[in-house]
Amino acid sequence: MDKMPKWADVVLIPLISVILALLVSGLVVAIIGESPWRAMQVMVKGAFGSAYGWGYTLYYATNFIFTGLAVAVAFHARLFNIGGEGQAALGGLGVAVILLAVDWPHWTLALAAAMGFSMLFAATWAAIPAYLQAKRGSHIVITTIMFNYIASALLVYLLVNVLRVEGSMAPESASFAAATHLPSAADFAGGLGFRGSTPLNISIFLALIACVLVWLLIWRTRLGYEIRAFGHSETAAVYAGINPTKIIMITMLISGALAGMMAINVVMGEAERLVLDFVEGAGFVGIAVALMGRSHPVGVVLAALLFGALYQGGAELQFEMPAISREMIVVIQALVILFTGALDNMVRMPVQKLFLALKRRRDDAARPNPTE
Amino acid sequence: MTDAPAIELRGISKAFGPVQANKDIAMSVARGTIHGIVGENGAGKSTLMSILYGFYKADRGEIFINGKATAIPDSQAAIRAGIGMVHQHFKLVENFTVVENVILGAEDGAMLRPSIAKARRLLTELSEEYGLKVDPDAIIEDLSVGHQQRVEILKQLYRHADILILDEPTGVLTPSEADQLFLILERLRAEGKTIILITHKLREIMEITDTVSVMRRGEMTNTVKTADTSPAALAEMMVGRKVLLQVDKTQAQPGEVVLSVRDLRVTRGGVTRLKGVSFDIRRGEILGIAGVAGNGQTELLEVLGGMIAASGGSVSLFGQPLDITGTAANGQTRRARGIGHVPEDRQTEGLIMPFEAWENVAFGYHFDPKYNSGPLMDNAAIRADCADKMARYDVRPPNPRLPARNFSGGNQQKIVVAREMDRAPDLLLVGQPTRGVDIGAIEFIHKQIIALRDQGKAILLVSVELDEIMGLSDRIAVMFDGQIMGERLPQDTDQNALGLLMAGVTEGAA
Amino acid sequence: MDFLTILQILDSTVRLATPLLLACLAGLWSERAGIFDIGLEGKMLIAAFFAAAIAYTSGLVWVGLLAGIAASIVLALLHGLASITFRGNQLISGVAINFLAAGLAVVIAQTWFAQGGRTPQLSSDARFANIELPGAATRIRDIAQQGPLGQTYSELISGHSILVYLALACVPLTWWLLYRTRFGLRLRAVGENPAAVDTAGISVVGLRFAAVLIAGVLCGIAGAYLSTALSSGFVKDMSAGRGFIALAALIFAKWRPWYALSACLLFGFFDAVGNRYQNIQLGEFIVPVQFMQALPYILVVIVLAGLVGKAIPPRAGGEPYVKER
Q1: pLDDT for B385-419, tens place per residue?
Q2: Could you tell me the domains of chain B?
Q3: Which residue in A85, A274, B35, C57 has the fewest CB atoms around it within 10 Å?
Q4: CA distance A263 to chain C (A)
């Protein structure tokens, strides 16, 4: 007998949690003396009010789909990959290396190569913590955090000492050749009002394809079955002949590769060169996205869209209401993680109680003679 | 001192959500006696004792200690009322010393040193008084299970407990350790302590208790003087109908050798768990492995099931060697060779509790071509197969979409049994097939095992329940300390003889 | 490299190790009670902000310190609520707290001071002054004249803020409380086997909240030190990963107080060397400054890999306690 229907678990509880997070965020805005209502209007308008807004919202959402899927896939194997930030950074390095090293004739070839390299670099960066977890039992949460810092130091070093353009002060690589530039939304959806300046590019389709592939992987393949089984119980997995080392390694390689794919959107699609700190916390947003999306690709897309809108709307907010810092987005992100993740039981327990009470009332009503 | 009973319970009720764990329980235990409580798993014994120990709050009812109404809202109150509890799973801090564990929660002041000095002195006195010898400065994890239990008892005596509750205390003990425990309990009774013994072993009830209460489905159905009852009568009261304690089976017709194990050795965590085990199992025979838990049976099953690697020895199936150390030593290759495995613990090994029944039916067999189409799994086929198995193995409710955790213990076990036995494996490994399973399901599972044997399959049965081993096995091997102490035929031996072997005593020494 | 230079590096080591040490001890208290705390960073950061903001507003550094501690305690209680009361995932809660602090500090700073998410520079009254121990020379010229012992006294031992001495005093205090008192025994037990504590009639929830609160206080001091002693005012992200280095030091120290001191001094030393020398020449090789910055993290990975002894955390760490049925 279930405590509550499935829809309550996958839709109702995350929804309540997100609403709570947004309410508390509104409270914070009110406390600092601004109108939450007006802030929300500005954000919604900034995110969805124009093709310009949509372009940025969807561009950010693309990043978050990749990093969200990365965290989600790892969650299924009960691995908490906090290393999306560092893995994405390495993915960017891979993109820059291959796009600068080879004179690409056409963007399609360049894209294929860049995808290969971003995933390879990022997956490699995830592989070391994965190996240490699988073989040495080193806690992957700690090691992936450490690898974020190491990645950051590595990128600073490379951008300052190796990839920096001679004579330039900025810690960034040379720009990629024009032939490698990805079609932007202005090219493939100009009719919808997207202009040349929009950061939105064809990576969004890659992100959606990734969602479908992840869904198939997790719920329709033997590997996904093994990943989920391992995630629920390692001893049971061993009993069934599932190799824990293999699962940890493969899951983290996939997770890292997905995080690395974010670099296609940012480094190849938007910046068209490798800049310092291009990840800008997207790796961490992935945690909120995966938690809110219940580690399901559909949920991840919806959560990524919400966070994309928050990022774009937040950027508008700081122009319209300068008293509210852009860091308000980080607060909202934190509250979403808090309510959908750590405080899950706070929402879950009353909802369960409610459904139990409803069920009892139904059962009582169904019984012909309650006194017997 | 009055003549009031040490403990009296009136009208105790407790529900967990929709489950009524205790219903209107009344019980009275006289001072200076040993009172047994028997009942099947899930009958509500542990809940009742947890209420008495303040671990749970009863929804209704009253508790009288020495004739005085006493509220026990938490364990602290229970301790103040002189109640001590020795849990089935010890509540000890493993990397603390004995004395640190004993004083935990009963310190004499904010500083540790005086408390420890006093405890060390008192421990020496107590251990002499009751014959409970332990080194106060030993680290718990270095002690044997029997000694750890002594620490638990000392802990309660240190807190001046007059009423001791012991929950399934002999489950982890050898028969001789159990005998020592009973000697201690008798001494405690002689000193005027009151003891409540919770067990499902009727033999122990008959051996040591003065009175016994029977619980069934949350209710206390009978309380009788032990002298006035018999194991058969108690069993009937527990189940609510006449039970066949014997299993019906015909004489075995052993055929060719299926499994041959030679000098099998396993080392785990630096400890040698199997020290050279050798045996054969033939077609159409059940080899039962008897022994106290933790003497290598678990490792034997796990190494044969491909879950862990051996450190030496050899295993062959129909004369063909089985990889027990290399990369091919895993559950997948074992299943491919026709070895089924009902693991000892269905909750942590045999099933993925949040998975739905149909997903569990494919567990371990998810590479089976009939469950797959191309690169993807054929979920519809698995669900159909699950529905079919549920019908034939009488799994209730027969709903493939229900998560495994929502089935009762017996029905969970039937799902595992259906999955592992329906393929008619040449060799079936079975560990604790009926642990935590209601009597109806026990009978069903036993019949299935016998039926598989009669099909000419080989079966290795590991169980800590001697009755089960005696009832099912065609041959019995007894394990102690990673070795097989000897083999017996069930018709030529009895529980006492097996018990000696389980304690590591061979004929020569005995 | 002359003796005085070495002393100066060591002096700077002590300054830089202090926030690490306080945060590390905070983590030690929390994790010894079985509550993982990756939110040290966030608690430090929010404390740094409130300490600076209130010290600036009131002009009283001690009031600032108290405000910092109070802010850190609020986040610690939130962590307790999520991971103890509601038995949530302690790691996720820690992650949330880090972001919450990083965001809130800047949002409030922006509203309050409108200086781009920082506090104004603190005047010397609103900062913790360095304490000159009796007989210590203060001017570089005077110190240079002293003998090695005098130099050590004046340069290394004297001239730190009171919080440095407080942090150092916390090491033996922590050790004594953990290993010599009833509270310490119970707290260690709850991190190893909460069921043992529960059946002994002691509140698991109470002990764990106490531990989380102590962690809050220590992180609060650490944060206040950052903004009112080490520098003069709050700037965005000023904790700069110190909470994670402290966590690293904790693992390095295998959850023991005295080892924690050594580990924090080691990591503080890396920091000090990295600050003083941009790139270090080692024979043929030039060690880039980024390597020095990454070194603590690399070391932790090596420790976690079990290449230098095995780090065994408290056994009940990370697991919410649920009574057995």
Answers
A1: 999 999 999 998 999 999 998 888 889 999 999 99
A2: 7-239 (3.40.50.300), 257-502 (3.40.50.300)
A3: C57
A4: 23
